[in-house]
Amino acid sequence: MKRYSSSSSSNSRPVSVLCVLALLLAIVAAHSHVTDQSSEIIDHIISKNYLKFARHVDELKSSGEFEQMFDSSSSDGSIDVQLVDGHLPGYDCQHDNIMQTRKIVKPKDNKDMLPRKHYDRLNKQHDDELVQETNANVGPIRINFDTTFLHSKKDPMGCYSTGQKVTFGNGGRGINCSLASEPNCIYTCQANEIFTDALGNLIEQVILPTIRDVFSAFLSVNRVDGNLVLTDTYADRECDNNYRIPDYYFEKGIANTDIVMFITARPTFSSATIATALACSFPIYNNNFFGRPYAAGINFNPYYFKPLLNNPNQFLFKEYIRVGLHEATHALGFSRIFYDSFLNPSTGQKYGYSPSYSFTDSAPTPSGPVSVTRSGIRTPNVVNFVREHYDCASLQHQLLEDAGGQGTAGSHWEKRTVGEEYMLGYVQPVFPITGLTLALLADSGWYAINNTYVEPLMWGRKLGCSWFAGCTATSWSATGYFANSIKDSCTPTRVGKGTVRVYSYDKDLAPEYRHFDNATIGGADYAADYCPYSDVTPNFRQNAYCVDEANQRIASKSIGEYYGSDSRCFEYTSLGSSSQACWKYQCTADKKLQILVKSTWVTCLPGSSPTVDGIAVQCPKNFYICDFNVIPIPGLGNLTMPVDSASSVSSSATLILLSLLSLFSLFILI
Ligand SMILES: *[C@@H]1O[C@H](CO)[C@@H](O)[C@H](O)[C@H]1NC(C)=O
Ligand SMILES: *[C@@H]1O[C@H](CO)[C@@H](O)[C@H](O)[C@H]1NC(C)=O
Ligand SMILES: *[C@@H]1O[C@H](CO)[C@@H](O)[C@H](O)[C@H]1NC(C)=O
Ligand SMILES: *[C@@H]1O[C@H](CO)[C@@H](O)[C@H](O)[C@H]1NC(C)=O
Ligand SMILES: [Zn+2]
């Protein structure tokens, strides 16, 4: 197999992270010249856990205990997972499809369900009834993982032997079970999906603690006072299909917990689904107004997680962890079912408007503007973030992804405007946890954010209102964003050498997706509204992630290339021809970009072209890696937090997989 040029998400933290809270803006100035090394705080947490895992595997191997502890070969033989050269394939998050079909069952009698305090308040029938109480017991979120179902090996939907028949979801009522072998979503377990103790140990001892460490680093909640007791009147008390929550959660409850996550490792009805997570217990007030999630289910598809056991690999590990963080973030509240239940953190009350909304947008096309219905998030910290990030003071929202369900508010950011972030619906190797998603979590009113852990969003940074409005050759003229035909280029965020892929489709694109005179021509990525941009495609032309140190093997010595977390892609010309190179960069104290070309550090002022040994570097004009500022989100101590103790849920579990938009097939690359 050819080498994979893609990196882990890991190495992608371009700039440093600034330690600053909203109340301490002054600190920004003091820290704003930063270099790469302090930028990987989340990665450090992940790496620490990876190293523990790798050491543990080594010890077990040398003591001969590996087989029994981790090796899954006893039940599997070889593991044949279709990773793309050792990395996760891009995948479509199924969260929205699954949520679409979950009917929230409102308890018959709220009075019995809500803690007394709520009941008294809710009874008043005024809009300000849900006023939060200030200065509660705020602290880092305590996530408790319940893995008993995992280890019991009695999950009716888990695979314990090859050839065993299991049911997907709710047994096929409305689901497109294209993977199933028999009607009603009956599926035959394959060898590489068998749950083993080794897989259970990996999930329980490594994956889950890492997810917990990362969230407790940047998320705080108003902690549950005393035991977390779930009060659920839903008859089956299920968290996911066939996952019955043990009775003691509804009786005595559990101590030191702000949210409990029930873990399973079942095959999923979409082969590309690596993990899924759903909130399954949260207070339900009148008018379908919900409180913060207190319980969630997370499923890890064994098919994807087993390769990690056979081949511990740090990059792959980081990708998996970030997929887990993505899914868990849905469960914490980044889900369309929760938007209308968000509480304004600065008042502690309901927003006076719907936090997510649909509106008529105007898409620029070669034949003039076209009206299109879009949806977006318009809460204060999100709006503040987008105005500063894109340098466009008139922005009213951040867009939500429309691919896969037009006009409906989904649970992912729009790929065209957000590009590279961990809450996109299509996961790729570089997916930072940025201030945008943290702003949304803050705007739920349920969480306080420690901004120390913000990873920079580089996509679209400071490119202005017209860039945000839509892609045209002019508005998207910055490096990496637009080309009329297939073209090699640094990617927009310069994490890699990529290619702008422009396709000719077999029919006209929808009017709002036309960016060329010829209506059949469009960019390769429908999630990005067919806007052409440069991305890194494995095994394609010279594509490679600069941030993946494993690529050092292909570094060109003649131009002094370097691959690693502090490398970025730059265009250059030499001997009359133009190309891209991965070079190490650093930032000076006065925020100037410097690049190490061969063994010379050159200062790269925007638009200049310093020359080293006949290599003329084209210094980027719109690349703000050296003056990244954390966009403040009110942090700890400046939030009113809800004081709900755990309350009820309702989860019904009718899964109907929406049929995805039928996509155009493509036939030529132009
Ligand atoms: C079910 O999904 C498969 C694969 O995505 C697709 O080819 C098929 O047309 C779908 N069937 C229906 C009835 O939607
Ligand atoms: C935020 O996290 C940093 C790094 O762990 C820590 O030093 C700081 O005290 C935290 N801030 C607050 C307000 O807890
Ligand atoms: C659009 O482009 C396709 C593919 O290059 C070509 O076959 C077709 O004739 C073009 N249509 C027009 C109207 O130019
Ligand atoms: C909290 O932040 C808001 C801005 O988001 C600010 O107006 C307010 O003064 C802050 N509260 C405190 C106590 O500083
Ligand atoms: Zn998702």
TrEMBL record:
One of its GO terms (molecular function) is metalloendopeptidase activity. One of its GO terms (cellular component) is membrane. Zn(2+) binds at H326, H330, H412. InterPro entries: Peptidase_M8 (IPR001577). Belongs to the peptidase M8 family. The chain crosses the membrane at residues 649-669. This is Peptidase M8. The keyword Ligase does not apply. Binds 1 zinc ion per subunit.
